[in-house]
Write a structure and sequence with these properties.
The chain has 368 residues and is an alpha/beta fold. 31% of the residues lie in helices and 23% in strands. Strand 10 and strand 11 form a beta hairpin. Helix 4 crosses helix 5. The radius of gyration is 22 Å and the shape is elongated. The two termini are 39 Å apart. 52% of the residues are buried. Pyridoxal-5'-phosphate binds next to loops.
Length: 368
């Protein structure tokens, strides 16, 4: 369950990234996209790291997707030129930031309202620039996005008439697949792709040109990508995987690249061990969108145990008499890797021999 000398050079809690698993996750998703002739645009909200984004681009990704302007600004400052903000950019302050960003990188963003399209148009046309936009489509998550053909057509028509905007395509995220059950994922993924291709066909028949049909979540990726007419895949979590993906049957524990290195600081009873990683290291995330696939707050590597309780700096492992010792180091696979990365300044890239590199989480905390 981990030896006292596990990465003794590192502080705890620390974030470990296993190079071999990471590399194989990156390659597997790139191969999937290549096999279907679809562009891969990894969502970097998962890792927020320039090193990792560069690695994904080197493997064949066409660009990156981000959730927030702050992430986009960090990536652009690091030299990444093709950035899709797979989210709405709203308000004068943010639209001004988007205009500034567009002079440093090729950016696009999602739109799902005529008012927001008008605001974006005003700012870009004033500066004599053109912003590429993607219509945000709701394929079942019921978060942002439109689903009615009439509403989508009206927005496309409004964008067509507005100066400073150029409609590039449709974008969706089938996050509702996280609610499971696992046996529904394939059908939800196919539905994600089919809905997008059907809507794109209707809009093309209405006279609109759509270059990009962008889908993507890690669970639905293999199913949505197989639908003819989908042109872009936008998964994020696949790069690490986590216990949510394991719970959904999307990945095995051996395909989880990220873990938290922690120290056992107390063994007050024969059935309780306490580690120095609590909610500020593991997050208290048990999965979004109605996910029920995880138990506890992270899996203890090399065992079937989970972290059963959390306070901010403590994680409690209730067990049945396993051999935990004060000072022992353990590794925990987090429930939700994307939430955990945002809690650390660095990831330690490692292999069996030890630490290979220290990778900053460049866009950590950039939720603005
Ligand atoms: N696109 C959007 C809009 C998202 O919100 C997300 C994740 O939340 C993704 C893509 C990537 O999905 P996943 O993390 O399941 O790979």
């Amino acid at each position: 369950m981990g030896a006292a000398d596990l990465f003794p050079e590192l502080p705890t809690p620390s974030l470990l990234l296993e190079q071999a698993i990471l590399e194989s996750n990156i390659r597997r998703m790139q191969r999937l996209a290549d096999m279907h002739g679809v562009a891969l645009r990894p969502h970097i909200k998962t890792h927020k790291s320039l090193d990792l984004a560069r690695r994904q681009l080197k493997e064949g990704a066409v660009g990156i997707a981000v959730a927030k302007l702050g992430e986009a600004e960090v990536m652009a400052a690091g030299g990444i030129v093709d950035i899709q903000i797979a989210n709405q950019v709203v308000g004068v302050r943010n639209i001004d930031r988007l205009v500034a960003l567009a002079s440093r990188a090729r950016v696009s963003c999602a739109v799902d309202s005529i008012g927001n399209a008008q605001a974006l148009s005003g700012a870009f046309a004033d500066g004599g620039k053109v912003l590429t936009v993607m219509l945000d489509i709701d394929t079942g998550l019921h978060r942002c996005g439109l689903s009615d053909h009439g509403d989508i057509k009206a927005l496309a028509a409004a964008i067509d008439k507005l100066p400073g905007l150029s409609l590039k395509g449709l974008l969706t995220h089938a996050g509702h697949a996280y609610a499971g059950p696992p046996e529904n994922i394939a059908a939800l993924g196919r539905e994600e792709g089919e809905t997008m291709v059907r809507l794109a066909g209707q809009l093309r028949a209405d006279g609109f040109t759509l270059e990009t049909i962008s889908v993507g979540s890690t669970p639905t990726a293999p199913h949505a990508v197989a639908i003819a007419g989908v042109t872009e895949l936008r998964p994020g979590n696949y790069v690490f995987h986590d216990m949510i993906q394991v719970g959904l049957g999307v990945a095995t524990q051996e395909q989880c690249a990220l873990s938290i290195l922690a120290t056992v600081i107390s063994t007050p009873t024969t059935t309780r061990a306490v580690i120095d990683a609590g909610s500020k290291a593991l997050s208290s995330d048990m999965g979004a969108h109605g996910n029920r696939s995880v138990i506890g707050y992270g899996r203890v590597v090399g065992s079937k145990l989970t972290v059963t309780r959390l306070s901010e700096e403590h994680g409690v492992i209730e067990h049945t008499g396993e051999d935990f010792r004060v000072g022992q180091r353990v590794r925990i696979i987090p429930n939700h890797a994307c939430a955990v990365v945002n809690l650390f300044d660095v990831m330690y890239l490692c292999d069996v021999a030890g630490v290979i590199a220290e990778w900053p989480v460049h866009a950590r905390g950039r939720s603005d």
